[in-house]
Task: inverse folding
């Protein structure tokens, strides 16, 4: 495959590079502030400056996934590549503490020894160059829309073959990039492979400077079901018995208050109702418990009481447990603007009826498929509409069964996406 010809730096990219160099001392202060807020790991701050390389012998593939959803979406891809290239080693970079922790939990044991994790360096030229000098990857894969000009420029300088997979570009983001089209072309033209989630994403990417962009589907279709400890699942099922249970999953600030009000409306109609709230960021648990008096907390080792109540699942990596226990699940970040939604296929794969708020733009295609197939319910704004939808699913078994059946079919429909992406990525790697 012919390598794309690197474009010369544009005024915008030059300005970005100069600004990043000059602001490096401020970024150091910023990182220390993030440590205090629990957003960084103090002992690993050097990774954010491109330090800590420990390159393994042999062929190394670097994959960068910004946060939780992106890092989990590459797990099927990693498994396929590992099976087809037994000597291949992997470097996975992410930008959040939560994504690093979840990746460690979710990696299959057979794969864990071949994967190294680092936090991605901030987009300062010297830090990006140090990172690439130390790791010297044979190819690199960027996931979705995580594009950093200096990091990509350093990779191009070193001749690293680049792929952008599961790419998405909203109409809003495309309009914003038109203010600096040269910078967009410079970044996108450096990718040998650009695989978009949808044809609309591919069209917008081609217009901005990625002429080979094509639709390949969404890697999130191929993600395995969320795991669970079977003994813990059995313990919870025995404790809950026939109690009505529903889950508000991956909630963001402001949504918990709506969920609590919906619970209060439902509790009078459904004796013993348990409403589980799993905040997207578990560290918010203590503050939420103060805002919602009487709430019990998973992180404190508490169990829900026998009466109707709220329970905070403020731990990491346990959505698989609570999706299996719930008779319905609201997928968070969808109730309030600007929203955007979280991945609705997670409950769909586990047979949990899916409820979605009005704001699901980040998962527009998946949402449309689920709604068209009858595999999800769209919930109007406000606690009253949410309570009505949850109550209907919990009290109408045939309706719940229809939602489960249709959602499961949608979730299974695109299982070949990871294989197609793996084929494209393997073409970037050197011969065995």
Result:
């Amino acid at each position: 495959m012919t390598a794309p010809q690197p474009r010369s730096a544009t005024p915008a990219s030059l300005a970005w590079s100069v600004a990043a160099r000059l602001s490096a001392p401020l970024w150091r202060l910023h990182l220390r502030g993030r440590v205090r807020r629990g957003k960084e790991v103090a002992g690993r701050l050097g990774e954010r400056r491109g330090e800590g390389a420990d390159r393994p012998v042999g062929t190394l593939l670097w994959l960068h996934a910004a946060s939780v959803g992106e890092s989990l979406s590459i797990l099927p891809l990693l498994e396929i590549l590992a099976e087809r290239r037994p000597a291949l080693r992997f470097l996975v970079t992410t930008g959040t503490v939560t994504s690093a922790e979840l990746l460690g939990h979710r990696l299959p044991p057979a794969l864990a020894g071949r994967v190294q994790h680092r936090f991605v360096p901030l987009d300062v030229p010297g830090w990006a160059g140090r990172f690439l000098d130390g790791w010297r990857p044979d190819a690199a894969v960027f996931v979705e829309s995580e594009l950093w000009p200096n990091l990509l420029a350093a990779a191009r300088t070193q001749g690293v073959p680049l792929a952008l997979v599961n790419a998405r570009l909203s109409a809003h983001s495309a309009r914003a990039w038109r203010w600096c089209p040269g910078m967009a072309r410079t970044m996108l033209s450096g990718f040998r492979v650009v695989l978009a989630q949808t044809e609309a994403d591919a069209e917008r990417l081609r217009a901005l400077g990625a002429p080979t962009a094509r639709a390949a589907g969404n890697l999130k279709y191929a993600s395995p079901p969320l795991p669970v400890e079977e003994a813990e699942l059995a313990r919870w099922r025995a404790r809950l018995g026939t109690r009505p249970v529903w889950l508000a999953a991956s909630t963001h600030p402001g949504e918990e208050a709506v969920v609590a009000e919906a619970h209060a409306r439902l509790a009078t109609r459904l004796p013993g109702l348990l409403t589980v709230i799993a905040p997207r960021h578990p560290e918010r648990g203590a503050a939420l418990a103060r805002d919602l008096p009487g709430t019990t907390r998973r992180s404190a080792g508490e169990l829900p009481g026998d009466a109707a109540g709220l329970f905070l699942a403020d731990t990491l990596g346990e959505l698989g447990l609570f999706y299996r226990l719930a008779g319905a699940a609201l997928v968070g970040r969808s109730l309030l603007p600007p929203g955007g939604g979280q991945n609705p296929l997670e409950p769909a794969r586990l047979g949990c009826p899916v409820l979605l708020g009005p704001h699901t733009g980040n998962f527009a295609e998946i949402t449309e498929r689920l709604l068209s197939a009858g595999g999800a319910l769209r919930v109007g704004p406000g606690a009253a509409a949410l309570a009505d939808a949850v109550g209907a699913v919990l009290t109408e078994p045939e309706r719940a069964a229809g939602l489960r059946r249709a959602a499961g079919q949608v979730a299974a429909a695109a299982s070949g996406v990871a294989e197609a992406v793996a084929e494209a990525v393997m073409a970037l790697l050197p011969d065995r």
